[in-house]
Amino acid sequence: MQMVSLSPPATWSPALWRSSPARQQPEWPDADRAEQVRQRLAGLPPLVFAGEARRLTGALAEVAAGQAFLLQAGDCAESFHDFTAVTIREKLKLLLQMAAVLTWGATLPVVKVGRIAGQFSKPRSSLTERIGDLELPSFRGHMVNGEAPVPEARVPDPERMLAGYHQSAATLNLLRAFTQGGFADLTRVHMWNQEFVAGSREGRRYERIASEIERALRFLTACGVDVVGERTLHQVDLWTSHEGLLLDYEEALTRRDSLTGDWYDCSAHMLWIGERTRQLDGAHVDFFAGVGNPIGCKLGPEASVNDVLGLCERLNPGRVPGRLTLITRMGAGRASELLPPLLSGVREAEHPVVWVCDPMHANVFTTASGRKTRHFDAVMTELEAFFAAHREQGTWAGGIHLEFTGDDVTECLGGSEQVDEEQLDAGYMSLCDPRLNGRQSLDLAFRVAELMRVPPGE
Ligand code: PEP
Ligand code: CO
C-alpha cells in the first residue's frame, strides 16, 4: 500500500480544537480532576497503531473506487454494565455472518468496521430529558455519566474516560484474539449462526449459503488451491470505530507516528464526526482535520452541497481515496429528494469519498408508550432510495452503517418476525437508540445483497 501523508498544517496540534467552539462537551464539575485524568490517559499506551489506520484507509480506498463494500455496525452506545465475552462474541458473529452474506451475494470484498471498543459517548438534542416526573440532565454515554434516573448519576465524571479506555482495551484484545485466532475462519461459517436465529427463515437461508461456501472451499482444494495455507481464509481484519465526540478523550489518545511524523488518534482505527458536531468552524472538524486516520462524517437532511464540499476540502484537502467517508442519514421519506444533489456535487468536484447509508438515525420515532423505536420497513426504504440514487448518479453506493446487537432484543419494529409495539417492552435493552436484532440484521443483509445486484425496476 502506498504511504499517504495527510500533512496537516505544521501549526496543527491535538489541543488546537480548544480555540474553536466545541459542541456537546460535558461540563466537568472539577476542572482540575478532569485535567489529571487527561494527563493519565495521555500517558497510557495507544489502543491502535498508525500503521493499522493507514491499512484501513487503503481498504476504504478500494470502496471509494467501487471495488469493495463497507459494513459498519454495532451498538448505539456501548455499556459499562453489559460487558462480557459473550456479548462481544455474539456481535462479532453477526457481523461475520452479515459480511459472508454480502460477500457471497455481491462477490465483492467487505470491509468490516465495528461501532465497538470506544463507542461510549453520545450527542444529545436536548440538555435535559424527562423521566416520569423528573427533569434530569441528559444521559451522555457511559464515558461521561450514568443512565440511572437520579440527579447524582447524571453528573459528568472524568474518571469514566479511564474506565472507557480500559473497557475498549479489553474489548479490542478479545476481538483481536477472535479474528486472528481461528474463530473467524471461513471453514467455521456455520458456527456463526446463533441459536435464536438458526431456526428462522433468515437463519435457514444463511445455512444454505454457509453450505455453498463450504462446497466452494472443497472445490478449490480439489483444484489444487492451498486452502489451508491461505491466510485470508482463516483470519479477518475487523476494524474499530466510534463517534469522535468527546474531545478531551480523543486529544489524550492522539499520538505522533514515529514512522511518518503524522498525528493519529489511536483510540480507534476510524472515527466519525456526528450530525450535531460537523460545523465547518467547529472544534470537531478542526480536530479531525489534523489526524491521519480514516474519518467519517454524518450528513443529515440539513446538509447543503456547500456544507459537504466544505467538509471534503477541510477533511481531505489532499483528496486521498479512503480518507473520507460520508455517511448519509436522510430519512426514508426524504432520501430520494436529498441525495442526488449531494452525490452529483461531490462527483463534479472530483472528491474521492466513500458513500455510506445510515438508514437508522433519521427514522426514529417515539411510540405512545414512550419507547424510542424504528420500523424495519423505513430502514429498508431509505436503503432502497440510497441504492437507487447512486445508480441514477453513476456513483458507488459504498456501504451501510447500522445499529445492531447480537442479543435477542425487541427494539426495532417489523422485520420478518413482525415485532409490534406491544412486544417492545419484552426485550428493550438499549441504553440509547433502538438496535436491529440478529434476525432483522440478517434479513437486512440478504436484502442489501439483492439491492447491490439488481438495478431497481429491472
Ligand atoms: C449515532 O450514530 O449514534 C448518532 C448519534 O448519529 P447522528 O450523529 O447521525 O445523529
Ligand atoms: Co444512535
Question: How does the SSE layout of this entry go?
Answer:
Elements: H1 31-42, H2 50-64, E1 69-74, H3 85-106, E2 110-115, E3 128-131, E4 134-137, H4 159-180, H5 195-198, H6 201-222, E5 238-243, H7 247-252, E6 254-256, E7 263-265, E8 270-273, H8 283-289, E9 295-299, H9 305-315, E10 324-328, H10 335-348, E11 354-357, E12 365-366, E13 372-373, H11 376-393, E14 397-403, H12 438-453
Helix pairs in contact: 1-4, 3-4, 3-6, 3-12, 9-10, 10-11, 11-12
Bound molecules: phosphoenolpyruvate (PEP) and cobalt (II) ion.
Structure overview:
The chain has 458 residues and is α/β, with parallel strands linked by helices. It is built from twelve helices and 14 strands. Helix 1 runs parallel beside helix 4, helix 3 runs parallel beside helix 12 and helix 11 runs parallel beside helix 12. The protein has an eight-stranded parallel β-barrel, surrounded by six helices. The two termini are 38 Å apart. The model has no long low-confidence stretch (mean pLDDT 95).
